[in-house]
Amino acid sequence: MEIYAVNIEGINEFNFEYTTYNHILSKQTLRKVKNFKHYKDSVRTVVGELLIHYIYLQNQKESSIPLVIRRNEYGKPYCNEAAFHFNVSHSGSWVVCIVDTKRVGIDIELMTDIDYEALISFFHPFESREMKETTSKKDYFYKLWTIKESVIKNIGKGLSIPLNSFYARQNQQVTSIHFEESTLNDTKFHVKMFDFQENYKLAACALHDKFPESISFLDASKIFSFLMHDSRHPK
Q1: How far lies 149's CA from each of 157, 168, 191, in Å?
Q2: Torsion over CA: 44, 46, 50, 53 (sign)
């Protein structure tokens, strides 16, 4: 398992034209980015998918088969390589992804001043009670939010898994996931929080506990250059 992060703060419409990578990007992503009102949202989505292609090609140097990204009925992306599982998240100036040989999920959030005390009412009652008892409510909420999102994204069924259908019990460095009356209780989810940039929370969810010790940071320009010159993508 590996986790990667790319900073996109300096990428804008004047120095990055995502249509250059139309031959790489999936049709679903191309349709999606055309509907965004803000260019930065397009950048986040495009860089997320390009990052997956880059990691795959770097790890599969002997393969001549390019990655084909598809989506399940709930919108979760997956690929044509059965042993290559991935998940992407983005927020603020960062795009992150996790790759593994088994199903994974990841979530990153920029901690802004939203009404998180009202939003907690949509979570499990156990989590609402826990938040009332903590003095660091904002920190608790965003930690909890990324944990639950990473679990939902691991499952890959979107919000058909309601936020109040399970809860996360946080005990020092260990987080356990508990579902209410669900067959998902038969699945052992492992969750890890990673120290990241100031004002960000990042959580990853896997089906085992072999998480990397740290996150690998990649340079966006090197990713773009590599993909443009790799012969495994049809031009």
Answers
A1: 11, 11, 11
A2: positive
Domain 1-102+208-235 belongs in CATH node 3.30.70.360: no
Token readout for 223 is 């990713």
Classified by CATH at the fold level, domain 111-197 comes out as: Ribosomal Protein L22; Chain A (3.90.470)
> pTM of the prediction?
0.93
4 phi and psi angles, rounded to 5 deg: -125, 155
* Greater model confidence, 60 or 197: 197
**Domain ranges within the chain, ordered by starting residue:** 1-102+208-235, 111-197
- What are the two backbone dihedrals, phi and then psi, of residue 113, each rounded to the nearest 5 degrees? -90, 75
The phi and psi torsions of 199 (rounded to 5 degrees) equal 75, 15
- Looking at beta carbons, which pairs linking 136-143 to residues 24 or more positions away fall under 8 Å? 138/111, 138/113, 139/111, 141/116, 141/117, 142/109, 142/111, 142/116, 142/201, 143/170, 143/193, 143/201, 143/203
pLDDT in tens, 9-65: 999 889 999 889 998 999 999 999 989 999 999 999 999 999 999 999 988 766 667
pLDDT in tens, 99-139: 999 999 999 999 999 898 889 999 999 999 999 998 899 99
Three-state secondary structure call for residue 104: strand
- Which residues does 164 contact at the CB level (< 8 Å), separation at least 6? 122, 123, 124, 125
- Cα(144)–Cα(150) distance, rounded to whole angstroms? 10
